[in-house]
Structures are given as C-alpha cells and as structure tokens.
User: What shape does this take?
Amino acid sequence: MPKITYIDHEGNERTVEAKSGESVMEAAIKNSIPGIDADCGGACACATCHVYVDKAFMDKVGEQQEMEKSMLDFAENVQDNSRLSCQITVSDALDGLRVTTPESQH
Amino acid sequence: MDLSEAAQIVLIGGGQAAAQAVQSLRMGGYAGRLILVGDEPVLPYQRPPLSKAYMKGEFAEERLFFKPGAWYEDNGVELILSTRAVKIDRAAQVVELEHGGTLNYDALILCTGSRPRALPVKGADLENVFDLRGLADVERIQPNMVTGRKLVIVGAGYIGLEAAAVARQMGLEVTVLEMADRVLARVTSPTMSAFYEKEHRAQGVTILTGAQLDHLEGKDGKVSAAVLADGTSIPADIVLAGIGILPNIELAKDAGLTIDNGIATDRDAHTSDPRIFAAGDCASRPLVHFGRTGRLESVHNALEQGKLAAAAILGKPRPPEDCPWFWSDQYDLKLQIAGLNQGHDEIVVRGNPDERKFAVFYLRNGTLIAVDAVNSPPEFLASKKLIMTGAKIAPDMLKDTSINMKDIAAAAATA
Assistant: This one.
C-alpha cells in the first residue's frame, strides 16, 4: 500500500498507509491527520483540504481541473505546489508522497 | 455549567453531527467514556453522496464512512448501533434504550437528525415507493435504477432534482412532479428555478409544475402510476418522494426541552437543559450573521454544531461560526450556496445562465446576504466571506464580470 507522509505547519510528520483509489484527503481523514478539514467530504465544494505537494511529486499527482483551480484561487497562502487533496487519487506511483498542510484551512 | 469534569458523554444519533462531535471531543482531549447510540446498523457515514455519485454506483460504499471501524476502537468510542433511544430521564441523567438497558450521562448530545416527510396520499405504502435519506434507502432503490424504467419523483427540491439527474444519466425515464409553480421554489429565486428547469428538460426529464399528486395506483401490490388531481395518470415503475424532511424532536420534546421548530439551542449548542446539547438537522440555533434563529439542513451546520457542542463541554473557546453554506451536484453543474436568502430585497445576476456559469446574489439594504453560484467557485468563496462581514456592495460592481471577485471583495471591505 502506498505510504503518504503529512507534515503539519510546525514540521511534525505523520506517515500513513493509503489505499489505491482513495484520495489523499480521504487517507488523511481516516487517519485523523490534523490540518485537513474536508468539510464537503471530497466533492470539491469547500476548499478546506488544501495541501502543499512535495515538488518531487508535482508531475505525478495529476493535472488540476478547472473547478479545483478556481477554488484554490481563493484559499489562503496559495503556492505553486498548492492542491486540494480531495482531487489527488492515491496510486502506487504516489508511494512516498509528502504533503504539507497549511496553518489554517479557513 | 462546568462539564469539563464529565466522565461519561452519550450521543444519540450517528450522522454527520455526531461523528464530528465524537471526533472533536477526543481530539480536544476528552478522556472519559464516550458512547454513540445510532438507529442505523452501520458506522456513521456521509449522506450527500447518496443522491449523487453513490446512487450512480460511482462511489464505493466504504468511502461513505467517516472513519473505519478500527478508529472507534482505537479512540475508545463505544458504538451502540441498530438501537433507538426511547426516553431521556433528565432528573436521573439517564437515557433509556429500546431493547432495554440504560445509559447514564454527565453530558448528552442529541444528533437525532431528521426523517423524510411521508407522502400524504393513498398508495404511498405500495411497493417501489421510496424515500431517499439513508444507506438502506439507496440499497432498496438501486436495483430498480435500470435503463428504460419509469421513475416519478414527487417534489422538486434538491434531493428530487439530484436523483432526477442521476436517474437520467442511468437511462431511466424521469418525471418530476412539483406542487409549486417552479422547481426549488422553497429555497431559491425564479432565475435559478428557470435555469434548473431548462437544464433538466434539456436532459430529457419531464417536469410538471403546479402538479398536485392525488394518489398512487398499484398493480399486484407494486406502484404502477401516479395520478394527479386533474386526473392525469403518469405510468410509474418507481416513485421517489422528496417532499422535505421533519426534524426528529420527539425525544427532546417528551423530555420537556424547549422546542422552536427544532430543538432550541443557544450559540454553544446547549438546549434548555445545561447538560444536554443538540446538533445538526434536529436543532434550531441562533444564526448570528442573520439576526434570527433557524434550523439548517446542511453538512456545514452539522459539522459546526458538533464542534460547538464539543467545545462547550470541554470548556474550550467557541469555534468560529461560519457563513452557512451548501452544495448540490446535478449533471456537470456544481451549485454552491453561501448565506441565507430569506428577506432579500434585491437580486443581482452576474454572468449568463446560458453559459452555465453564473451567480445570483441576494442583497438586503445593500448588504450581501446570500449567493447561488453555478460552476462559479470565486463568486461562492468571495461571498462566503463578504456575507459574514456585512459589507455593503454596489450591485453594478457585482454585475460587472470584467471586475474579478477578488477586486470586488477588496472594494467592499474598504467601503
């Protein structure tokens, strides 16, 4: 099972085993990773699952759809590697993925 | 009342509000016994996908559950499923369960949710007449979601229209009956109603407004037609009722708690008994940005009141009370709603509905109070913040799509 490491804004790391097919957001919620709210449960409706993707994985996490892009545009502290974690699907290719959560999702 | 020394907390109900409260209590450091009593046989799950991707078979069941079973064990949350609470003895601080057995509590959180309003017509008890509220409902409906079958949906609210969209995409023949003169009449403006009617008709859904269902006809015990008051008979293999929900307040009412449409709460989700809290669809709460109380049927509300109740019990600062929000997915249309539009005196449309990307803003005395945004996240997200600040916004600016929402928000903030 692919391993994903979540790093909070203070630098604390938590690594979980995710399942292929679920989203990076779902793996976080099921493992009680702090820093990801995901109020809408993955419908790309709320922009509260913002993460920064490790640069080494940027070409592996897939393209952003239009909806995600315009949602992220209104998130706080957006960077080039910002993504909504509900829109990244876990696969073997993402084994070792590292994402950092922002200080606040609101 | 200081409940920070509580040693036993009981939650009644296993939906979104209860799942959030449990999580917030444990994450907030509560170390005592935590017991969740739910009347469904499954772990707490999210309901929104039931009328959307899950109904369509595009969303695995295990993804509905907020947490895997192991999480509850690991976090010392005792689940009593398939069980109703039948009585609250407030003096003794005891909840009685239907199969016998009692639970003491130091604090009690009522997350009893709501139930679909039953079709008040003859034939409503025929086979293949369904509600859509829980996982068990979808399990009953799904085998009937077969290409070519005739589905009649009673009620053109969000549930009805989402189900209509899914059914059309699965190849069913769909008729939607609505008593009012337009779809979504209870919740949105004529502009939005006209847009959604047009979309559904373009997808092949038959929408009958001003349609009064008289009764359902059956054959061999199964529904066969929906008959309107004017005598029109619409053949039906399946009927789905989506005519609203009723809050489950009976337990609270019988216990003598104050009821105000829902179980009345203060800002911190306390009911009229300081040891008892209410959260989610069943609760009627102060809507602080709108100067009134009300009952909200939404994920946002369930999450927020779950957090408020947990914080109040733990003696922690009150979590933020966000702008109410909601969403609906139909076909490739994402509708995002912020605020509450009741009491608006002006409507501003930004963008062109024909482009399937537009927003309808609702203002009162020049202040933004709500938005319905179709495929328009910037309008939704900017409004969500603006509604809370109560800033005045010039309608001409809102209308002008050459000014982006960030600039509109910035101008409103400094006005």
